[in-house]
Amino acid sequence: MARRQRMAVAVAVVVASAWWGVPVVATAGTPLLAVTTASLPPALAGQPYTATLAATGGVPPYTWQVASGSGRLPRGLHLDPGSGMITGTPATDAVTTAFTLGVRDTRSGPDHPPGVATARLSIVVGTVGHAAVSAGIQSTCDLEPGASVACWGWNYYGQLGDGTTTDRTRPVAVAGLTGVVAVADNGITTCALRGDGTVACWGFGLGGELGDGTTASSLIPVDVSGLADATALAAGYGQTCALRSSGTVVCWGGNYYGQLGDGTTVNSDVPVPVGGLSGVTALASGQDHVCAVLAPGTVDCWGRNEQDQLGNGTTTNSPVPTPVSGLTGVTEISSGGWATCALRSDGTAACWGANFFGDLGGGTTAATTVPVDVVGLTGAIAVVNGDADTCALLADTTVRCWGMGQFGELGDGSPATSLTPVPVKGLSGVVGISVGLSHACADLATGPLECWGANVNGELGDGTHVTARTPRVVA
Length: 475
Prior knowledge:
The chain is mainly beta. It has strands at 14-15, 34-35, 43-44, 49-52, 55-56, 63-66, 77-79, 85-88, 97-104, 116-123, 125-126, 133-135, 139-144, 148-153, 168-173, 180-185, 189-194, 199-203, 218-223, 230-235, 239-244, 249-253, 268-273, 280-285, 289-294, 299-303, 318-323, 330-335, 339-344, 349-353, 368-373, 380-385, 389-394, 399-403, 418-423, 430-435, 439-444, 450-453, 468-473. The relative contact order is 0.10.
């Protein structure tokens, strides 16, 4: 599958219609008016945006308008009717929207009415630090043009969603999936969030991980039951959770350690509410545990705690949310295998849990039941845990990683492990990152997706099985 410019997500279908109350009548000798803009570039919340619409045929100059009742531009963006330019700065809470844009030419008179054409378009609004790519155990999934999803790598459980169990070294389209704004790959089950708040999952489902009311696996997406207001997803090993527009959380799947947060240890094949949790702003799911950022900037975690992953000073499992010790000012959260990291508003980060390869970034390999600061990390805008390593995206659009480096997953050109952050070589212009079992990927503002690390099952998506110790372009 040919790769695209990063996150250029939005596909238009050009149709003829009556508009502005004027019937569409072709004029002899005049080329048919048509919108030629097939897609619009994505926007980043809080950053200036410019896009120019284009048309052909008819009689220029043209007049542009968002058709009444068809949708709207993301909040903070505006359309100039004369130039066809969309400009502005998306609000920090702006969301992806779809709308119908119409163009009218300047023909006039009863015998030569204006030509009209319309196009259905969308603008995907992302947040710097939130990746469109999701790296699982030995697979990877990514948002594609038209708000669809492509996946590659390990496919034993059908987690690539292409209707097969064949491993892929290059991206393949997930079957029948459109309107997607986020994807979460835990390695054996994958889920996608649509713009309308619904969720679909595919892959391993024997513990109820697909959330469709069954315990069957599926090679193609199936809808999660009863969920229509999701705003974010967090997929862990065995369970998936969704943040709802109300600020509450629901989870489904395995629950042996209480990771569904409903006060029980009973699996659920449909979403169940996490008990006593409200005001949630961010969510993360690791191996048998889940963590949430609350509106005051504190963190609660629940589930398995044998490796200190709940951060509450104990090693006792908890089937309900429990506060993480001593954390304030938290804006984002990430959970990997048996560790979790929290990003603070000042650009620093703290991590806790298992620390076999120094993936907590504290300069040691000692596990900790409470958060410890990542040594020397400042200016971070995202921190993402993998299974044995962690990466941070900095405000200067570069990336630092730490932890296990045996397969090149630190991206610094070396197989050495590092207990503190090291720069990923040759990588800049990054807007989002994701870390898997032994590989990592980066979304770039322009240019193709790049990945590095282990490539046993083709998880780097470059058409090979060759390990990469520095970033490599996805094919």
